[in-house]
Specification:
The chain is 79% helix and 0% strand. It has helices at residues 6-26, 30-55, 61-91, 96-99.
């Protein structure tokens, strides 16, 4: 059975991370920014699993870290969506520049 080399997995992970970073810094829509952060977290998960497989094939530390990161990402997404809904209710927009003009 052929294994995928580590450098190809890391190249995929770097690509996902930079696509997420580009989306985070160039978009003004909060939902798109949230999806970009999720892409960046998933690239970190790929790194955890890849390094676990190649450095410590008998242990599952990377997999457990990935499950922990996925759990934190789900909680972060729930909180972020609640903030986006409140922003939309008050300003009828989810544009980040509109959020800077919020008055309490």
């Amino acid at each position: 059975m052929n294994e995928i080399p580590l450098n190809q997995i890391l190249f995929l992970s770097i690509g996902l991370f930079f696509i997420g970073a580009y989306g985070l810094f160039t978009r003004r829509n909060m939902i798109t920014m949230l999806m970009s952060i999720e892409l960046m977290l998933n690239s970190v998960n790929i790194n955890f699993v890849a390094f676990n497989k190649y450095l410590y094939p008998d242990k599952l530390d990377g997999v457990f870290f990935s499950i922990f990161v996925i759990t934190i990402a789900a909680a972060e997404a729930a909180v972020a969506i609640a903030i986006i809904i409140n922003l939309y209710r008050s300003h009828h927009s989810i544009d980040v520049e509109d959020a800077g003009e919020m008055k309490y």
